[in-house]
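Can anyone check this?
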Amino acid sequence: MPSIWTDWYQRLDAEIMIIGQDWGPYIDMEKLNEKYQENQTRNNWKELIETEKSLTKKQLTNFIKVSSNNEVTNLDNFYITNAIMCARQGISYRADNINLKKSTLNCKDFLEEQITIVNPKIILTLGYYPLLALSEIFNFEIKTTLKDCIKSNPYFKVKSYTIIPLYHPVAQIKKEEQLSQYKRIWTHLKGEENE
């Protein structure tokens, strides 16, 4: 079922993969799917993605744009997925309608398969649980909070991947602090690893 966080079409060769936390409530996915079923074309899908764009995606796009000095202005060439491949119950994004850790660990094999298929150069994790999934998949240790993870390891080199943990785009973190992490994307993509 389509979701604003499952825009994979023609992106299997993406150099950058973004991993969010979860799809949100099932009811939101169901509504989007119904609109898509009325007109199953790529143009309709693109329009739905734009009209359904969340604050998270708007902020994420803005951080990508600003950090790249306006060289990248949208997410069209990014492979976007989630650590948790199941929808929340109910109608809200409240954390108490899904067991985040259990769901992350239950879905990590599906995420690993996507990473293998896409084989990106850079993997961006939005929040703690996507980073937890990768630490389980690739067997590296992380701290117990995202802030401590970023402070001690602003990026991880695993196999051929550079993993850059990012604060969630709408987290209550200073923009300058967030942007310092986003700027690492372009440094690593260009191969300028000695920061």
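Reply from J.R.: I decoded it. Residues 51 and 122 are 28 Å apart (CA to CA).
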